[in-house]
Design the sequence.
């Protein structure tokens, strides 16, 4: 999935139709997290090429997104997995 040409890559996400729905960008972040990655660097390359943002910005957006209840409703398996990974990392610190 590529970023829309009409929206700046790092601009705030335009809301999707309906206030309770995720934006196109937020859906793209979740879709990126559902994909398998063949090796080191593949995901970071895809983030830059397909979403047009840096990996650092991607993870900032993703960390905020997994706290959003709309994301949990949209993709509970992915969001709960990401929350478990985050919580496990916090526990090791």
Sequence:
């Amino acid at each position: 999935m590529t970023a829309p040409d009409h929206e700046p890559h790092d601009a705030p996400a335009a809301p999707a139709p309906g206030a309770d729905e995720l934006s196109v960008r937020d859906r793209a972040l979740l879709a990126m997290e559902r994909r398998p990655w063949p090796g080191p660097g593949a995901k970071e390359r895809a983030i830059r090429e397909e979403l047009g943002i840096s990996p650092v910005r991607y993870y900032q957006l993703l960390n905020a997104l997994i706290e959003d209840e709309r994301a949990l409703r949209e993709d509970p398996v992915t969001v709960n997995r990401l929350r478990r990974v985050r919580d496990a990392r916090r526990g090791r610190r």
Residues 6 and 78 are 28 Å apart (CA to CA). Confidence is low (pLDDT under 50) at residues 1-8.
